[in-house]
Each structure stands twice: as C-alpha cells, then as structure tokens.
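Support case: S-adenosylmethionine complex. Customer-provided input:
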Amino acid sequence: MADHQHDPQQQHAAHPHEHGHGHSGGHGAHAEDGADEAALADLLDLDAEVLAEHLSDVTAWIAGSAGDPAPRRIVDVGSGTGTGTLALMRRFEGAEVTALDRSTHLLGRLRERAGELGVGSRIRTVEADLDETWPDVGPADLVWASSSLHHMADPDRALAEAAALLRPGGLLAVVEMDSLPRFLPDDIGLGRPGLEARVQAAMDERRAEDMPHFGGDWAARFTAAGFTVRAERHFVVDLDTPPPATARYAHAVLSRSRDGLGDRLDADDLAVLGTLLDGDGPEALLRRTDLTVRTSRQAWLSERG
Ligand SMILES: C[S@@+](CC[C@H](N)C(=O)[O-])C[C@H]1O[C@@H](n2cnc3c(N)ncnc32)[C@H](O)[C@@H]1O
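Agent response - structure generated as follows:
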C-alpha cells in the first residue's frame, strides 16, 4: 500500500454513495484531478502486485491470530483500489467485504477488478468521506485499515467509528508503512550518490507537515478508543530479485515524489531524477537491472471490548 499526499483541493462528498453488488460506474463530489487519481490507482495496484507475498503474509498473520470462526463480514476503511479487500477475500473464503473510500475513481477500479475476478457479488463499495459521515455498514467481524488512518483528519474519531461498526469481540487490523519503499543502490552511476535517501528524507519532511498523524503511537490510540491490542508485528520486505513490475512500481513512487517535492530537492538532484524517470538510456528506471525493493510496515490486531 503505497502512500500519497493528501490533496488540499479535494472536495469531499458529504453523503455516502453506495454501490451494491455488481454495479459499475459511479459519481460523486470529488474534484481530485483525474490523471492524478489514475496515477494513484496504478501506484496502489503496483504496490500490491510487487508486495503480493507481503500482503499474503499479513492476511495469514491476521487469520492465525483471529482463530475460529474466521471473519465473514469485513469492512475495508480507505480501501483505495481494494488491494486489501481482494487479499482478505482470498484469505477468508466466503467473506463479504464492504469497501469504504471517498474516491469515486478508486472504488470504480475496485468494482471493475472484482468483476474481472468473478467476486463482485461478495463486494459492496460505499463512497463516503470518513472525515464527515460514517455510513452504517456494520456489524462487522473485522475492520481493516491499511495506510488510511493517518489520512483522516481525526483518527481518534475514526477509531471510535470503527469500534461502533464492529460486533463485540470483533477485530481491527491496521497496517501503516514506516516510510516509502527504496529501490536503488546508493550509487546509481549518474553522479549523485544518495539521491534516493535524499528524496525519502524530503518526503518524510513533507509528510510530517501535511500528515501529522503519520508515524504516531497507534497502539496508544487503539487502547484509548477501547480496543485491546492482541498482536503487533513488524513486516520487513527485502527483495533482491523483485518481480518484473518493480520497475513500473519504482517509477510510480518516484514520479509521485517528484511531483510532491519540487523545491525541496536541489537542481542537480532534480536533473538526475529527470534522467531516471524520463530518460530512455540504460540508466533510466524502466530499463535498469539493479533494482531491489526494501520497505517495512507495522501491523496491529486489536479486539473491540
Ligand atoms: C494510501 S491509500 C491506501 C489505499 C488502500 N488501503 C491500500 O492499502 O492500498 C489511502 C486511501 O484512503 C482514502 N482516504 C483518505 N482519507 C479519506 C477520508 N477522509 N474518507 C474516505 N477515504 C479516505 C484515500 O482515498 C485512499 O484511497
């Protein structure tokens, strides 16, 4: 689940729009730039493709901790394109998932993909700005929130709403990334060693300004919202021979970083980033043969009292 910066221009739908099983299309008062939303959708899907094993490890960990009976009614909070929705459906056979997101486009992608996979009848998408109104989609056995809680204006309120959706004893699974994934060796042969580390540091700096909840003490927040933290795990991803989609994933991550950083990088770094992203020589990202994937994410499984 790659992260993205919150767009302050975005308008929020005040009322949830529901799409039942098998519907496609959709609308909403959503003003994020279409190309930007499409790029974000690609990024989220590439993240799930490259980190498929990691996603599977996380859902296996949840299944192991959840025990019997396995969750059947699941709510995905801030589902995006539904990478978590689909992973949970694969893990929990027969489960039905309600995906909540404020983005018409991302939910549309989810319905399309679910249709292709023949699981559309097990998925319901509900468009809602969770900073405003939480739709009444409970009771749920499991609420999943991956890389979404830190986007909320008031995560404590979001946790209270999530608790209200859960049946007593129901589970809340939260995954948060530690920082952006890294793909490049320190020396990329273009004369600017350490470029990716500087991009990441600048992104961390920007995120701290734009998303003050990122990297907070989530376990303390869960406890304050009345949950009991049952398990916590740090997942480290270290792929020396990553799958073929990695080049496109790296390109998507670094493009988004470049768009968001502008003057936080100096002109020489920006020029090298341009060569990586736009060049067509052997050093260009999409042609490189030296990419790896390094990232880590933290997961918590908590029980509603
Ligand atoms: C980084 S993406 C993660 C998507 C998905 N959970 C994943 O792991 O691939 C964050 C998602 O949260 C959604 N989101 C952020 N703030 C929201 C809000 N206030 N209401 C509803 N959805 C929100 C965004 O639209 C986006 O799809």
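Strands lie at 17-19, 73-77, 96-101, 123-127, 140-146, 166-177, 227-239, 293-304.

Case will auto-close in a few days if no follow-up is received.
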